[in-house]
Amino acid sequence: MFHNVIRTIETHTCRGILYFDMAYLFVFVTVLVTAGASNFSTSLWTQNQAHSLNQFFGKLGQDVAKIQARTSLFEEVQEQIESQTKKLSKLISVLMTENKRYKETGDVINKTITRLLIENETLKSRIITLENNQNSSNTSRFCSFYCTLTAGGIHYNDKEIIRFDNIDDNTGHCYNGGNGVFTSAYSGLNFFSWTVQSHENTPLQSELVKNGRIVASSVLSVSSSTSCVVSMDIGDRVWVRINGMGNLKGNKQSSFTGFTINR
User: Fold this and answer.
1) Residue 170 scores a pLDDT above 90
2) Contact predicate 143/119, CB 8 Å
3) Parallel, antiparallel, or unpaired for β 188-197 and 255-262?
4) What is the C-alpha to C-alpha distance for residues 155 and 248, in angstroms, rounded to an integer?
């Protein structure tokens, strides 16, 4: 019986130990499982975080690269600005120098203009003086005349010179009332005009002749007036003559005039 008791105790003891061992094993397995699960979760979390960190650092690297590129571009732009600033400074210096030179040139030009204006006024005065002197000189070398026919009813043959004998003006003494001829004392242009009237109201014609050559002719009429400009040299002669035959009115109704235009 004692052995039975001992065996029972041993049996129960073994069972207790077994139960304890099983409980311990359960706890150990539980711990292992828990630890394994925890490690597995930790591993998954670490992988996710590592992936996120990789993405973050990858993006960070890209941003850093962009910043570095922009920094490099900024440095290049800054260098260009500094270079352009230096060029602009040189250009401003050149412009200031040119402006100073132009200002000095402008002062010289203004002084020159003032001097030229004074000289111009002086020249004007001299020209006026010379013109006055020339006009005074030309007065004595200017030819003009005006003469009329006094006697009326005088018969003139063909090509006969009309002698306008009444001389009212003969500046320069170029007209000869004795033969009715104008002799040029200077080379230049001369203006001539003459008027003839028929004494018997018979149409007649007259001519202006230079050195024997007809220069101008009047119309065939009882009364006519004709004018012309003739270029003459010194010594050239001009007169008025009848073309045909006829009697002229006198009493200053027939006239002959002329004067120098230029020489």
Assistant:
1) yes
2) no
3) antiparallel
4) 7
